[in-house]
Amino acid sequence: xxxxxxxxQKGGSGKTTLAAHLAVExxxxxxxxxxxxxxxxxxxLSQWHSRREAETPGKxxxxxxxxxxxxxxxxxxxxxYCFIDTPPTISEQSKAVIELADLVLIPAxxxxxxLWAIADTVExxxxxxxxxxxxxxxxxxxxxxxxxxxxxxxxxxxVAERFIAxxxxxxxxxxxxxxxxxxxxxxxxxxxxxxxxLVIISCFNEKIVSRGVANG
Length: 216
Ligand SMILES: Nc1ncnc2c1ncn2[C@@H]1O[C@H](COP(=O)(O)OP(=O)(O)O)[C@@H](O)[C@H]1O
Ligand SMILES: [Mg+2]
Description:
Elements: E1 2-6, H1 15-28, E2 34-38, H2 44-51, E3 58-59, H3 67-76, E4 81-85, H4 92-99, E5 103-109, H5 112-127, E6 132-137, H6 144-154, H7 168-175, H8 180-183, H9 188-206, H10 211-214
Parallel strand pairs: 1-4, 1-5, 2-3, 2-4, 5-6
Helix pairs in contact: 1-2, 1-9
This protein binds adenosine-5'-diphosphate and magnesium ion (MG).
């Protein structure tokens, strides 16, 4: 099983949206069972999950101290992926979660506030020696600031070649416990989530976000 931790110090950068959409996408890829863990006290991912009619992806509910054991149990049951959503704060708990990751995704909007906050997140991920990948979210594709953000993020590590654009459908779908690709299978959001998932899989297959590469 691959554990993918989604973290960033900024609230609103798109962690929870990515966790939900990527988990559904991973499952649609047919790799096997996919699980979610919500470690944020705000519990947005849990709220979304409780509104879902579909039975999958599953959500693992364990006290934080038992999370490593819970992941071991999922792995023993041959689960394929587990996505862990995190709060926007750096604490001992967030460091402990990062220790559990096979890959860390760091979402960032193309905004000065997100970019200025990135260094702290990168530092704890690098300290843990974990492979990581930036994901540009809520992007305005033609905007100069998107290109500037990619350039700034690239100084720290690899940026996923596919962005997640700013689309109302992401929020609208989640309100009803679904994801954008479940609402419109051939929509633009479905396309970009699928493309991003392929980039993430390639990280595992090609091992191209090795620590050395990611650290530049
Ligand atoms: N790609 C997107 N396009 C439009 N709105 C988005 C997108 N991603 C997230 N949002 C919205 O932005 C807000 C913050 O997203 P969320 O995933 O909850 O961020 P975080 O978990 O990092 O705080 C939510 O209202 C969400 O619906
Ligand atoms: Mg969140």
